[in-house]
Structure formats: C-alpha cells, structure tokens
Amino acid sequence: MNIADFRFTKEHEWVGAEGDVAGIGISDYAQKELGDVVYVELPALGDRVSQGSACANIESVKAVSDIYAPVSGEVIEINEALEGKPELINQSPYHDGWICKIKMDNPAELDKLMDKAAYDEYLKGILED
Amino acid sequence: MKKTKVNQAHHLLKGKMVEFCGWELPVQFSGLSAEHLAVRTTGGIFDVSHMGEIFFTGKQALAAIQHLTSNNAAKLEPGKIHYSGLLTEKGCFVDDLLVHMMTENEYLLVVNAANLDKDFKWMKEKAGHFDVKIEDRSPGYTQIAIQGPLAIKLLAEFTDIDLDAIGYYHFVTGKVSGLDMIVSRTGYTGEDGFEIYFISDEEKATRLLLDLVEKGKRYDIVPAGLGARDTLRLEAKMALYGNDIDDAHTVLEADLAWILKLQKGDFIGREALQKQKEEGLRRKLVGFEMIDKGIARHGYPVYVDNREYSVVTSGTFAPFLKKAIGMTYLPIDRCAIGTEFLVGIRDKQALAQVIETPFYKSDKKSV
Asked: pLDDT, tens digit, for every residue of B228-272?
C-alpha cells in the first residue's frame, strides 16, 4: 500500500485499499497530536463496522481517542503487534502502526474521503488556525 | 486568558499552549512522557506562576492561620514550610496549601490557582477579625519550579545561595540572577528540586527562564508543562484539588491525617474531624493499579459489590512506572492492599487492585 494512494477522513484516519480489503490507521498528524500511545483497544475479528462509527480506541498518557471506521464492512484482521508495542502507532503510523483490515461492503464509500492532496490541504487549514 | 510574566518564553520555546484556570500555559514542550522521564532522571523547568501567593502580616498572623488550617503552624520557624489544609466546618477542603513562615509576624500561603479567589474571600471572611492583614500578592509574583535530581546543579549556576544547606520543606530569601527571591526546596513532582518566587518585569523574568533552559541543556534538563506536572504528582501520590480532595471529603478520608493536628487548639473543622476520628472512617482514598488492560481515568465509575460506589479521582498511564495507576475512595473495609474492585472503562468493567502508595518514591535522601 502506497501512502500516495491512501484516502483520509476528517478525523485523521487513513484507508489503504487492496481490492476490497481496506487497511486502516491514523495519520502522522493524529499520532503527533495524541502523544505517546500507551494502549490500543482493537476491534474484534468479525466485528461489523459502519463508516463513521467508532471501531477502536487509542489511549495516550493524557487522553483517549475514538477511532472511526472510514469504511463499512467486516473486520477480518487486527494488528496484534499493537498490544505489546502500542508505540508502533507513533513510530510508523502508516505502516507498522496499522490498526485493522476491513473487508469492505461498498468500496464506493472511499470516494467520499479525501485523497492525499486534499488531506494535506485540510491539514494546512487546521495548522493555520 | 491571563498571561504569566514568562509567557513569551513559552512561545519562543514552542510550547503547546492551552487555557488553564484562566491562564495561557504550556501543556507540553517536547512531549508528555519525555518531560516526565526527564524530571525523574535529570530535571524539568516549569512555569507555575498561576499559583496564588497570599500574605498574612501582623501580630495575630499565626493565630489567624491556626484558626483557618489543619496543620500546626506554631511548629514552624522562619524558613520552614508545611503542607496544610484550609478546611470547611465539616473538616473537608476549601483548598490544600503550603504555609511558609517568613518572620514571627509574616507568613506566606501558597494556594492553587483554581481556588485563589475563593480562598482569599474565605480567609478574609473567617479570619478578618484577627489583628492581621491578609493580602493577595499573586499578580506580582512569578514562580518557577526546577525539579529533578540535577535541579540543584542547574540552579547553583545562577546563585551564590548555598542550596545544599536548604533542607526539604525549607526556604531562604536571597538573590538568584541578581533578583530577590524566595527559594524553597519544595515541589509537586516527588523529586528533589526547588521553587523560586520573585517579583519582576516580563523582560527579566522571561530572560531568566530562557537562561535556565539554555544552561539546562548541559544537564539534559528540559522545559516541562502542565501535562507532565500532573502525571508526576500522581505517581508521587500527591493530591490534586478538584480530583482527590474537595469540599465533600474530609482530611482523614483523604488519607492526609499527617497534616491534621487536632491537639493544636481550635480551628475550623476540628469538631467534625474529632468526631469522625472517634466514630471511625467509612471511606478512604486509596491508590490502585489496573490488573486488566485499560487505563482508569478521572471520573470513570468504580464498582464495589457490583454497585457503582465512587469514581476514579485521578488516573493515568504512569510514564515512569509504565503502568496504569489511579486513586479513588473505597469503603473502609475495602482499603486493604490487594483488595480488588472494578473500574468502568467505556463499555467494560476492568479489574483493579489497591496497592501501596506513594506509587513512586525517589531514592534521593533529600526527599
């Protein structure tokens, strides 16, 4: 999965699709905002998620952050490495810090999300505030 | 938002600024865990100018303070400090504070920023009849905390004061970087360190803070913010007003019997506390760690015998101890070390157990 092909949500989740399977995680901006991740509550295998609903939890020292499913579908893989090394999300938010993989009900949902260029613009807007 | 005199330094140092009790203050600089760990191993520099400085001056300064607080201020000497409680008639907290004896007729009370106005009104109302002048001199003061094993080395570069000679919970007045200061060996981190109080203009205060940070680099001492301040004090099991102590829990329930001196004479709350001591406590503040995965945070429900009993008063993932810890009030028969209970974390109930506190204790002899 190439970051250039990822789609992004306004809540700073990324989606990388291969066929009808979507890997998801949080963006570099999001991991910086959170600070050191100390605990990740992963979804369970087989969980059904819908676009925009909370599917996981990331805890930093100071706060809990809900992670919203960028697409609807079934969780078919979870990144168990995060259980022992939650800091992977800080160290490698787009690769080793992936959260789970979802078998998409409707890949067309990706069209609703921002591509990388749009997300970068979106970030510029936030940082300028 | 109000700005402390060293506000410009925070912006120059690229601190992440937030609003806290009406003040613009940095919550972090390099990162919460990094700053927390620095304080435990080398040092951290905090702007704590938002705290309140209230002076009691006059023939009955001591009498007024004795009337208002739980600890025995008659035991103080010039240069000595103690931790105490400003109590309600029920023996609960209006605030917690530090009492410094300047001279026989002058005392400095340092109170929480969040309670400054409330405390000042309370003090004037309850102790105004004593022959004492009670003044809020907070706006003039800048307060900087330098905390950690190497704090003394850093501060020594800025003053000729014999810092080694200042014992824990003692203070001196003298010059630091040419400015008149109160230099106290106190802190809210559980480490050795100093808090310096001074009256100055923005330019000099900002310059001093930046100089401390610059020279601090030699010792790997870093600027630190409110985020680390909170995790550090929690690891050291130091109470935070509004979380662990408040006007609904007594001094005894808050596990602070050591700042209560019932024999010292009459004071607000004495009768209620004497009664509670005789009758026995029904609940007490304990420290706990999580057994199940999860982090217990302030406000999360605490279950005893399957019923919601209280809430987590303070909780976090402790960056130095690397585990989830917290504090809560439990029924008195459930306060023994090892007792298990449940914390509601979102839609689950996670197991926790009472453990000994403080969670962390510095091995430095000075603390």
From this structure: 999 999 999 999 999 999 999 999 999 999 999 999 999 999 999
A3-118 under CATH 1.20.1640.10, yes or no: no
d(CA A56, CA A68): 7
Structure token pair of residue B222: 């870093």
Quickly name the fold that domain B282-355 has: Elongation Factor Tu (Ef-tu); domain 3 (2.40.30)
For the entire predicted model, the pTM comes to: 0.92
In B, residues 200-239, which contact A (CB 8 Å cutoff)?
Answer: 227, 231
What are the chain A neighbours of B231 within 8 Å (beta carbons)?
61-62
**CATH fold group of domain B2-51+139-235:** Gyrase A; domain 2 (3.30.1360)
Residue B363 has pLDDT above 90, yes or no: no
Out of B293, B294, B316, closest to residue A61 by CB: B316
**Where, residue-wise, is CATH 3.30.1360.120 in chain B?**
2-51+139-235
Distance between CA atoms of B128 and B346, rounded to whole angstroms? 48
Residue B293 contacts A, CB cutoff 8 Å: yes
Share of chain B above pLDDT 70, in %: 99
At A6, is the secondary structure helix, strand, or coil? coil
